[in-house]
Amino acid sequence: MDERRIAWLLILVLATQLTLLALQVPGAGGRGTFLGSLGLRLVGPAARTVGSLSGSFRSAGEGVRLQGRLVDENRRLKREVEELQLELLRLEDVRGEADRLASALRYTAPPIGRLRAADVVYLDFSSWLTTLVLYAGDQPVQLNQTVLAPTGLVGRVVEVAPPYAKVQLLTDRAASVGAMIARSRRQGVVRGAGSGALELDYVPVQAEVKPGDRVLTAGIDGVFPRGIPIGTVVSVKAGAQLFHEIGVAAAVDLGALDRVYLLDYEPVPERLQRTNDVRR
Prior knowledge:
Blueprint lengths: L2 H21 L10 H72 L6 E12 L7 E5 L10 E4 L2 E10 L2 E6 L6 E6 L5 E8 L2 E5 L12 E4 L11 E10 L5 E7 L8 E7 L4 H4 L7
Antiparallel strand pairs: 1-2, 1-12, 2-5, 3-4, 3-12, 4-5, 6-7, 6-9, 7-8, 8-11, 9-10, 10-11
Helix pairs in contact: 1-2
């Protein structure tokens, strides 16, 4: 029995009840007639029963609809898992081919170690997100160690006082990161621009740059490995000189950090970065 039929039955019962009450004639002393009393005794329980059945059917219908939605959601998630598994197989094949080519060319990629979590215990809002302090526990932390969030680059360690470490964020005006545009592989330098913004410098005006282009670490600064998301281009205009003026939105919401990840990555030794020591 569907809900519409139950509703009509309820209306019929209520109409019958009202009719019996209308026919009731007050007896002596204001008491109702026998017919009216009998009608109330018969119709009242029936009305309650029909109301109870209607509520039960309505609850059952909602349960069926909810179960249907859960089944559809489960099917959608299974399809997504299958697609991700197929993509993983494809990437594994590409990785295997790259490893074979690297072996033939005797190429060795820079080693990148594991990630380990650290809690943020202080965030500098006084100068708009330039530094943070994290608690690393008894695990060793190195100067210039890369600091990440799940969505991208956070910054680098600039001071260590176990079990704490101070991190310079990307938005610091003194921060700089070797970067590249993912679509064109054009390289430049990302700098903090104040107020939480970023700028991508040294990209020539001849290079095509569009809002929406993803910006990654280029691995050319001796500190950060290649391929970490930095942000997305939000504005491009020709500068007064030979380079674009490019605004970048950070990939990480630095004001919402409560946990970060330290990357065990060996940067280029400083003595190799000092060009003044090169003998001519």
